[in-house]
Amino acid sequence: MTTVTDAGQTAVDADRTAVFDAAVAADERIEPRDWMPDAYRATLVRQIAQHAHSEIIGMQPEANWITRAPSLRRKAILIAKVQDEAGHGLYLYSAAETLGTSREELLDKLHAGRQKYSSIFNYPTLTWADVGAIGWLVDGAAITNQVPICRCSYGPYARAMVRICKEESFHQRQGFELLLTLSRGTEAQHAMAQDAVNRWWWPSLMMFGPPDDESSHSAQSMAWKIKRHSNDELRQRFVDIAVPQAEALGLTLPDPDLKWNEERGQHDFGAIDWTEFWDVLKGNGPCNEQRITQRRTAHEDGAWVRDAAAAHAAKHTERTTARSAQNEQEATA
Amino acid sequence: MTATVSGTTGAALVLGDDALVLSHRLAEWAGHAPVLEEEVALANIALDLLGQARVLLSMAGDEDELAYLREERAFRNLQLVEQPNGDFAHTIVRQLLFSTYQRFLYEALAGDRVFGPLAAKAVKEVAYHQDHAEQWTLRLGDGTDESQARMQRGLDALWRYTGEMFRPVDGLESVKWQELEARWSSSVTSVIERATLRVPEGPRTGAWAAGAGREGLHTEPFGRMLAEMQHLHRSHPGASW
Amino acid sequence: MSGDWPLWEVFVRSRRGLSHTHAGSLHAPDAELALRNARDLYTRRSEGVSIWVVPSTAITASSPDEKDPFFEPSADKPYRHPTFYEIPDGVKHL
After folding, report:
1. Chain C: touching chains (3 or more CB pairs < 8 Å)
2. Among residues A123, A157, A158, A159, which one has the least CA distance to residue A138?
3. Measuring CA to CA, which residue among B53, B56, B51, B69 is closest to residue B12?
């Protein structure tokens, strides 16, 4: 339960806070026009925006391989997947708009580097196997993170996530299948798959965010039921799921400390290099500059298209109005 | 596959290569579209075309062998569809010119013994592509001065590739090519005029500009496109993906 | 700027016989493109057979503050529901 009480808060606000808190406690959904604490709204906007940005920046590393996809079947799958990511970005920007923040505003912040997206997309896709590793590991981690958000206290965000999770179920499977084909293929293909898993494993574990004792927003978000599980809990869940899957793939995970802990009933795993995490987050990853530049360029290059369509719509409305005014005049003449 | 293929196989390659190559070009937009809604729209069109290409190439042989192991001179697509995307106006003009053609062509093939079943399904997809191109042509043509200038530039640049579309194709005997051209011409002209644009005056046929894609003569950008598309597949001979 | 493209609410009829339900929203410069964008975005997995788009600004919504006067008065009228009435066992088709 949260207790956001300012000294200057009026009695009405205190009542409203109580109503809000009770709704959250009772696992009811908060809807757009309900009163909500400013900090709750701000936290949601920040999280939904970051999530939306991740979807659309996340298109880039995979789109990088569409034109080189090695079979027509894989090419169709990859186009559909990258398209889904654009769609998911749209669902999420819509959810953010219900909180009174326009997509344009959020995109401006992204382009100016004032809002973040998931750091995982600042790593490059060097080979075709990376497309598989992203599907299996990155989407796998994302799904682990996202499934609990389907029960998030904010209605529009929860509904967007239900839709996204439903659509994403094919993303992880196609990645797994792609890697399995490579792993069972030629020696060169197997090596390609192993190399990709080696490079994507650790960054995928970092996707769950900093350890619980260093996570600045976690406690409040859990209290508000925006978040349902801690970073470390979700990370552990992901590792436990991934280990047997790696075995099925015939690939190894690049962690010598990874082993089953009978006592805990979970896997132990090695220490994560948080220096790298913070470094990439700060903008020093291999692709930060490239990703944001491409995004900004696409947006700027598209400005004339958006302007033209808006201008056309304005002219059209004017003409329709003029025509009906004329019709009216003729009718009364 | 060589220049001597004819009949059904040749015609399947003609239709399949058009769809394959244009799908590839449209997919190059991924991550670069002017607005997110259009990312989704362009990908939908690319997927429809890729689906058609796979059915058609499979009628002529193994879809992947045909897509990835043929040399440039063995491709039968129109030069129009291999043209680089350019700006969004250029892409929309290419869409308008091609989807109008493809729609009427598939309509003409609806009763064809060999291609009828595919054409009947694909014509619905293509009707949507044509509508998408028309909607955008009207908005960009009659939008701002800049968008109008860009659209006109696109039209003027791509017009020379349109004559080739109406050269009779072996194996597509049920198509009346002159009638097809007349329908195309009247439809495209009407959209161009409603969009306050000008029908280009330049030739649609003649020497190289006539377009010889159907005979395996392509433009320079096509070789690069194929190099990118085929590189990975060719680097691992015999591998499965 | 897409900021100039208004927001539209999208309603999709998932199959014949069902009513349109709210699917989400999107941006478009005008109604025709809104409809097409909605088709591409909200029915790409065959989720619909009919679509409505409405400018978001055209929707008038009840206010959550008026929730009580709006919706509570209907809560104490159980006689509107069939379960309110007791019918002897064995009486059929009622």
Report:
1. A, B
2. A123
3. B56
Domain residue spans of chain C: 7-62
Q: Read off the DSSP letter of residue B199.
A: -
Q: What are the phi and psi torsion angles at A10 (to 5°)?
A: -75, 165
A-chain CB neighbours of B46 within 8 Å are 79
Closest CA to A56 of B16, B37, B103: B37
Inform me whether the C-beta atom of residue A80 falls under 8 Å from chain B C-beta atoms.
yes
pTM: 0.93
- Name the one residue in this structure whose structure tokens are 């280990």: A243
Residues A259, A202: one domain? yes
In this structure, are A231 and A112 located in the same domain?
Answer: yes
> Backbone phi, then psi, for A273, in 5-degree steps?
-80, 90
Flag if C64 and A309 touch (Cβ within 8 Å). no
Model pLDDT for residues C4-47, shown as the tens digit of each residue: 799 999 999 999 999 999 999 999 999 999 999 999 999 988 88
Residues 52-91 on C with a CB inside 8 Å of B are none
Domain extent, residue A305, equals: 286-332
The pLDDT tens digits of the residues spanning B5-48 come to 568 999 999 999 999 999 999 999 999 999 999 999 999 999 99
Instruction: Assess whether A292 and A267 both reside in one domain.
Output: no
Q: Computed from CA positions of residues C77, C82, C83, C86, in that sequence, does the dihedral angle turn out positive or negative?
A: positive
* Contact yes or no for C21/C38 (Cβ under 8 A): no
Better pLDDT: C70 or A210:
A210
Whole-number Å distance between alpha carbons of B230 and B64:
10
Domain boundary among A232, A255, A276: A276
Q: Quote the minimal CA–CA distance from B181 to chain A in Å.
A: 30
Residue B37, chain C, CB below 8 Å: the answer is yes
Structure token digits, residue A161: 């996530």
| Chain A contact set for B241 (CB, 8 A) | 70-71, 73-74, 128, 178, 181-182, 185
- Residue A318 pLDDT greater than 60, yes or no: yes
- Residues of A (161-180) whose Cβ lies below 8 Å from C: 163, 167
Can you tell me the distance from the alpha carbon of A299 to that of A319, in angstroms, rounded to the nearest whole number? 30
Q: Which amino acid is at A140?
A: G
**Would A141 be classed as within a structural domain?**
yes
Indicate whether A118 belongs to any domain. Answer: yes
In this structure, the answer to whether residues A188 and A309 fall within a common structural domain is: no
Residues of B in contact with A302 (CB under 8 A): 33-35, 38, 88
State whether A296 and A192 are in the same domain. Answer: no
DSSP label of B161: G
A311 in the same domain as A164: no
Closest CA to A84 of B44, C2, C37: B44
| Contact B87/A at CB under 8 A | yes
Q: A38-57 vs A103-111: helix axis angle to the nearest 10?
A: 70
Mutate to test the interface with A, among C9, C25, C67 (most CBs of A within 10 A): C25
Say yes or no: A324 and A211 in one domain: no
Dist. CA A254–CA A133, nearest whole Å: 13
Q: Which CATH class is domain C7-62?
A: alpha beta
The reply to whether A15 falls in a domain is: no
Quick check: B91 and B85 in contact, CB under 8 A? yes
DSSP A284: I
Per the structure block, which two tokens stand in for A295? 């995004």
CB nearest B35 (choices: C2, C32, C44): C2
CA distance B228 to B68: 10
CATH fourth-level superfamily of B7-235: Ferritin, core subunit, four-helix bundle (1.20.1260.10)
